[in-house]
Amino acid sequence: MSGRAWILAFVAGNCIVHGLPALPSQGAILRGLAALLLISLVIIVARRAWATFGEQPADGSRDDRRAGGRRRGRQARRRRQSVGRLLHMLLLLAWALALGVSYASWRAELRLADALAPVNDDRVSRVTLQVVTLPRVDRQSIQFEARVLDARPGGVPSRIMVNWPLAVPAGRPASTSSAAGKALALQAAARSPGPSGGGRDAKSAGHGHALSRLPRERQGEWSAPRPGQVWRMALRLRRSWSARNPHGFDQEGHLFARGVRATATVRGKPVLLADHPAASLEVLAERARHAVRAAMLPHLSGQRYGGVLLALAVGDQASIQTGDWQVFNRSGITHLVSISGSHITMIAALGGLSVYWLARRLRWRGRLLAERLPARLPAAWTALAVAWCYCLLAGWGVPARRTFLMLAVVAIAYVLRVPVTGTRIVCLAALFVVLLDPWAVLASGFWLSFGAVAVLLTSTQWRGMAIGLAPPSRMLRWRRAVVAAISLQLAVSVALMPALALKFHEISLVSPLANAYAIPLIGVVVTPLSLLCAAASLIPGAGPVAGVFAAIGHGVLQAVMAPTAWLAALPVASLPAAAAPFWTLPLALAGIALAVAPYGPPLRRAAWLLVLPALCWRAERPPHGDWWLDALDVGQAGAIVVRTASQTLLFDTGGAHHGGIDDGARIVLPFLRAAGVRRLDVLVVSHADSDHAGGLHSVLQGVEVGQSYASFDLPDAVHPAAPARMPVRSARCERGRAWVVDGVEFTFLWPDALPQSRNASSCVLRIRGPHHTALLTGDIGARQERRLIDAGLGGIDVVMAPHHGSASSSSIMLVHATRPAHVIAQAGRWSPHGHPSPYVQRRWEAVGAHFWRTDSDGAISIQSSKGALSAISARARRGTYWGGS
């Protein structure tokens, strides 16, 4: 048990470092290790002295000759031994924790040192690089990670994320976001020839993509990037940066964990210099993935779920439709459409069992091969080799690493005939994963995969057979196996619910039912067929066979998705889960551990009740008369959530981005789920610009809206091809329209009835509570500000800087008329418009206002209460040592 406790302490020390807002200095770590060493020496010396002192005869040695004295002596020795073992254990745990902290800090310091020089931030540099990952292709860009070989000027990190924009051809339909359209885009990029190519494949590959950007006489020279290729490119380099919102996804941390220290956008025409497909093991594996993807795409093009088959074969999920991900999430089968531990284990087991069967039947010089070499040896090593190859083909993610390391421990123990328990396997795998990648603990897959394995190991230990009964029939064995599988799946689903609720703020209620039939069909049928399709696609002349495998696999997958889509469409398919306090997670984990343990206290089944606080937490609301305002970090766009005691208002819905992604689905809806908002009482869309109304359709699809206000006809702005739930009531925002909710008054101050430009007609909403007042301004300009002041605007405590802090707004008149305590500018980092203007910022700060910028501060949260107006930014609320580095 001490070894497993030591490993857990080491992992805990690693986790502590990644939760700190700043790394501990090297001096602090050395001082801590020195203090721990001194304490260890003192404890060792004191323990030996105590043992020596205890063995010396005391003054009452005559009494020790009595029976009672001897008994007291034995008890004293046992107490000393117990205390010594406890001190020994605590000392080992302290050293493990210290080593975990030191190791993670050392690795983090090395990665932080590999940063983009400030002078190169948002500047163009000439870089020679090598493609090291499988390019991700959509209809507008190619994205891949690259290793920097040379840069001018210097100061460029060793690993960057490159985005290669591609032109969209004229006449291409907008439906290219479908699986077929994306597959064709991937096929075009994968099949394009080298720089000396040309011919029919080059023309067909380039049509509609990068070739349209080049002069006609140079189109035959373009080549899509492949892993291993060396390119010289002009790149606009930027530090890794992402939006920061409460309970939102930290893309910046995700890139940092992958070692990506800068992002880059291609400028001009890159030049292909060389191709080294075997430059490293990583490049070789990614080149193999590229070859498999290119070979499979002709057989998957045009199939509804072809992207899922591709994801099961090589882990490339770029071709899966956005709508399909929603179905997977609501039905709880997302883990099945990626290469998970169960898939790797199954494929490894098939390979090992096949070799085991052959080894027991093959003969060499008249003798069975198993007589010379035990069949378990080649079977174990074959299973491990198959798992390793499949993990490399899958992209070597955290679940793949965890599965391979666990299989490696099992295989080695099996070959050496060393008994290893399940908990030791899990702990050793966790140790090796953290040693290889200290940032693996930042991925939700680390905790979900290890948690699922722990639940499975614990649940299977107390399943046994009743003794003294006749052997069951085959039908009874099958029935028991099915019941056991369903019970295990139910246990895993329920056990992972608190973690899923904490991470994704949504609970799938149909997950046990969907997984009951999806796990065997996708894991045992669809995944092997996709791998057979990949293998046949690589064999010359075996194209028809690969097509048959693809057709059968796709047919089975369609049969699986039919009931799954129906389940996901049910109103009760999933429930939103508000962000619960962190203390609810340890409470839930303790309840799960008690409930699934083979032995425990009476009524241990009631321990499941400890899970309820994490699942059913009710989000806090402001008291009557107070209001809370959250200006979300949506880049160069607008999205503001206002909450009162009983109602929620959303002012603007964020922007729209290429590839069919918008801030409504990416930022607004996750924030509402985390805040426990299941219904929007009021939706205000200030004007019809895409940076304010771009997420409208996703918001209407994701949440019910009671009343909407807009400066335009809102139903006309909803995409007719994908109908959404329209608001119960709709109206125009007009000056003078007002309502009171929970003691807070909402009043539209603009627009008036006169026709104006789109920005000038933005809705302006004033929020006035008993204690403070806020002004939401949209994109109005100085002329509209003057009209508001003439109408008697008065003092304001919180102002959303008009037009993202543009120099054409925030006039001196508005600044002096309102004199707010806080001003918030929703702007994007590296905005081409230069928002917010530095003159505007100094203008607001001159009257004593605190000027907040979402591009540097993240989302801003304002709380109005009696006697206090508090404000905090998302980056200050949860700082990270990699933030802004």
Question: How would you portray this structure in words?
Answer:
This protein is α/β, with parallel strands linked by helices. The chain contains 30 helices and 25 strands. The strands form five sheets. The protein has an eight-stranded mixed β-sheet. A seven-stranded mixed β-sheet has the order 17-18-19-20-21-22-23. A five-stranded mixed beta barrel has the order 1-3-4-6-5.
Mean pLDDT: 82
Q: Oligomer, anyone?
A: single chain
Rg from Cα:
31 Å
Question: Total helix count?
Answer: 30
- Give start-end ranges of low-pLDDT stretches: 168-221, 462-468
Query: Which strand-content bin applies to the residues?
Result: 15-25%
User: Could you give the count of β-strands?
Assistant: 25
Summary tags:
single chain, alpha/beta, eight-stranded mixed β-sheet, 30 helices, 25 strands
Q: What would you say about this model in short?
A:
Helices cover about 45% and strands about 15% of the residues.
Topology of this protein?
Blueprint: H1 2-18, H2 26-55, H3 61-64, H4 67-113, E1 123-131, E2 136-137, E3 141-152, E4 159-165, H5 179-191, H6 199-206, E5 229-239, H7 251-257, E6 262-275, H8 281-300, H9 306-314, H10 322-331, H11 341-359, E7 363-364, E8 367-368, H12 369-372, H13 376-393, H14 398-416, H15 422-436, H16 444-461, H17 474-504, E9 506-508, H18 511-538, H19 543-568, E10 574-576, H20 584-596, H21 612-615, E11 627-631, E12 640-643, E13 648-651, H22 663-674, E14 679-685, H23 690-693, H24 696-702, E15 704-710, H25 714-717, E16 729-732, E17 738-741, E18 744-750, E19 764-768, E20 773-776, H26 782-790, E21 798-800, H27 812-818, E22 822-825, H28 838-845, E23 850-853, H29 854-857, E24 860-865, E25 868-873, H30 874-877
Parallel strand pairs: 4-6, 13-14, 14-15, 15-16, 20-21, 21-22, 22-23
Antiparallel strand pairs: 1-3, 1-5, 2-3, 3-4, 5-6, 7-8, 9-10, 11-12, 11-24, 12-13, 17-18, 18-19, 19-20, 24-25
